[in-house]
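Need the bound structure for pyridoxal-5'-phosphate, inputs here:
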Amino acid sequence: MSKIQSTFQRLQATGRRALIPFITAGDPAPELTVPLMNALVEGGADIIELGVPFSDPMADGPTIQRASERALANGMTLRRVLDTVREFRTGNAETPVVLMGYANPIEAMGVERFVSAAREAQIDGVLIVDYPPEECESFARAAKDAGLDPIFLLAPTSTEQRFRDVARVGSGYIYYVSLKGVTGAATLDFDEVAARIPQIRAQVGMPVGVGFGIRDAESARRIGEVADAVVIGSRIIEEIERSPRDRLAANVIAFLREIRTALDQIEGGVR
Amino acid sequence: MQMADAPYRFPDPSGHFGPYGGVFVAETLIPALDELRAAYEACRDDPAFIAEFEYELKHYVGRPSPIYHARRWSDLLGGAQIYLKREDLNHTGAHKVNNCIGQAMVARRMGKPRVIAETGAGQHGVATATVAARYGMECVVYMGSEDVRRQAANVYRMKLLGATVVPVESGSKTLKDALNEAMRDWVTNVHNTFYIIGTVAGPHPYPLMVRDFQTVIGKECLLQMPEMTGRQPDCVIACVGGGSNAMGIFHPYIDMPDVRLIGVEAAGEGMESGRHAASLTAGKPGVLHGNRTYLLQDDDGQIIETHSISAGLDYPGVGPEHAWLKDSGRAEYVTVTDQEALKAFHDLCRLEGIIPALESSHALAYAARLAPTLPKDKILLVNLSGRGDKDMHTVAEKSGIQF
Ligand SMILES: Cc1ncc(COP(=O)(O)O)c(C=O)c1O
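Answer from helper R.:
Posting the output first, comments after.
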């Protein structure tokens, strides 16, 4: 069983929801990424999504675009992201780390080299935004063979055929994009999410995390009522943007703790 | 004319040209592309759609565009005869409008009242704004803020035509970033919005659809060349930015193996300078803007900035079908520098009384390089993809002239 799967099992056994924060590696500075990852864990993260910066982040809104641009300006590369996780692992062996990014840096490194380097760096999952299931069967197989969970997105508009595609190719969890548009957009339709999550969970047989548009304890709690995990990205990047360096970790921890507390207050028990 | 053994049948049903093309987009865009594919397939098989498209091309664009024998220029070069396919005579001054009409017609059939587009030099933006005005559609054009500054006249043209021009501040603030931003708009507003991509790139079905709308260029040549010269040309030459004017003229000739197909990329300040836009010549396969193709990228897979005197060729990728035609050897791809393109530009002005677009001047420059190496009875057909009025400022600046 993968570390991601056992994390969800452990949480489900105690009726808790997973908190999955996202940051971009190299933002605001490469040497601050490991301290920030540790801060995320301290704030209550169960899994960390670590963004690999890309020059053309087509699916991201302005906040994550800015993070990506800052990271690239700081000289962040896929190779250095892998080094960063290796360094994080010297102090934390348990918290699953999922790399999230775009296909081209991985193809430039070569899929085989990437997969074995990711395994060696003890990365647990990989979500490639512009690899839909039909274009990455062989990549997903290589990832699974190396013990990496290939994680896929589903959207409000996804058909049942997409559920089946993703169930076949993916593992770990499903990342449900809770609204139309790009990351960081503001409107969230809770009723829609509440109706869809049970369907998806039943059909794909994986835990479902919800992201895009979760900004505070209240929206996290409402999503947590129905989902297995809550993903928060743009809002944390904003926290990073507005924090002075000496308050960075403290502010991120304080922000996440509020979310953690809200999630842990959900009555819901085991599903 | 010899025909190939097996007819050329690309893309496959999932949008692949060999290893290239495909649908590399986030899940959020998949349903939009499914909807578009279904709608386009219905249009493609509908005689009423085809008849309306032909009517629009004839009465609004002014097709067929003529072929012109550049006799004085050919004589001076002293070799093969150069013929020009005059896409510069189309309404709006380039081949881009053929595709815009086709896509706007698909948008109308899909009931989408709003169209969006990306543009670099502004030619595709102007063509989209024109067609949107013609059909009474709302139009938003994304343009890198760097390009907005460089192409003020075209920005004004789009505004005259009723379009909203949105300057894009992200990334390198050029065409590729405008494309990213248009995709973000589309994914957010897909219920009422149609994205008119300007070249044979993007996720399936765009490379197929744009090619279909541009093949009118090559289909006309198939009829016109025998009328004028008694046979088909020996070489067909076109500039390649994203590759739409080239695919449009190449496609009907693919199954005739004794017609050489030559695509001309922008070598900018020279290939050795690194400041160019020659994705097929110097790039590596990768994934960008929804398809797998040749890309100009660094070792880490980040897309790099390109350079060309012609904004329409200034793109780090290329349509996936060109990647396939290159690998399969069916087409050849060569490069021409800013300087060579400028010389061809001036030669055509002085010798033939035609002011060509700087993009098209790349194709002309290669014809000028090739013609003297061939006997006088050989025929080169060059796609003169657009007129050069839009380039007055750029050329004047290079000659040290200020208006
Ligand atoms: C006149 C002209 N030719 C060629 C191009 C390049 O595009 P493509 O390679 O898609 O034909 C452009 C693009 O703006 C153009 O305006």
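Comments: Residues 44 and 50 of chain B are 7 Å apart (CA to CA). The first helix of chain B runs from residue 30 to 44.
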